[in-house]
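Hi there,

I know you've been waiting on this one. I reran it after we fixed the sequence typo, so this is the corrected version. Both the input and the resulting structure follow.
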Amino acid sequence: MAAPEPPPPPPEGSRSLSALLSGIAQAAFHGNAGITEELLRAQLYPEAPPEEFRALRAKMGGLLQSIASADMDLNQLEAFLTAQTKKQGGITADQAAVIAKFWKSHRAQIHESLISQSRWDRVLKNISWRVDLKSQLRHVDQVNTPAAIVEMELGKNGQESEFLCLEFDEAKVSQMLKKLSEIEESMTLLTQTT
């Protein structure tokens, strides 16, 4: 019995389209400003007229943006791409296959990048606390009163953290706990209604 033949190499057009999708993703989702339309055209489609390439890039960028913003699973992706192949001025079945293959292998990275970009500037990375007794103060009646010292580490992934240190007396701790309890109740209500 003869060994099975290896699959044929992908057509040159699918390699270029896959590389174009990678370039679009790098520029749009990963913030790589060095990947420009001119660079992509020169490297991947040097024979294509600029306006033809611009139209292809815009179409693929729009499709990728729609797929990424909906974070499509494989069933949604298949339905979406099938609809795009049947649409007037849509995409070919070969292009749909390349897009599907690209999304399957890049979905997690693109999703993570979009999540990272959508977060506020800084997030709470860590919190630590301790309770101290005040031993020296200007007013004698405040000696030996407890104080909570809270240290919060704030930062963005891949960047150096900042530390915020706060001191609370008993009244402020109670106030803070009340507010946190209100936040927790609101979040619980939202998760129960959805």
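Quick highlight: The CA atoms of residues 187 and 193 lie 10 Å apart.

Best,
R. S.
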